[in-house]
Amino acid sequence: MLFLMSRLKTERKDSSKSLRAGESVLRKAEDVVSSMLAKGFILGKDAIAKAKSVEEKHQLTSTASAKVASLDKKLGFTDKINTGTVVVGDKVREVDHKHQVLEKTK
């Protein structure tokens, strides 16, 4: 399906994958910090500043994002997941049409 896109669209898609990967890494870090706070950990300003300093020095987020995007491009996880989602959606609609599940649950 997406294989017929022009090179420009493919490059744009690859850059958006990198952005999504970076967002995913950032979301995971936020989840870890939120979980720690919820469990009663107290993060001082110096701990947060240290974490920020380490991130700026080593650029962990951008490095991880680039690695994830590279692996995704190499292995095609996003395309496989998208294809799987379409197939599953089609099967769900097929089962619903055959057994009228939606109508019976109203």
Automatic annotation (TrEMBL):
Q: Where is the composition biased (Basic and acidic residues)?
A: 8-17
Which portions of the sequence form the region Disordered? 1-21
Checking PANTHER family in the record gives:
RRM-CONTAINING PROTEIN-RELATED, SERINE/ARGININE-RICH SPLICING FACTOR
What is this protein's name?
Answer: Uncharacterized protein
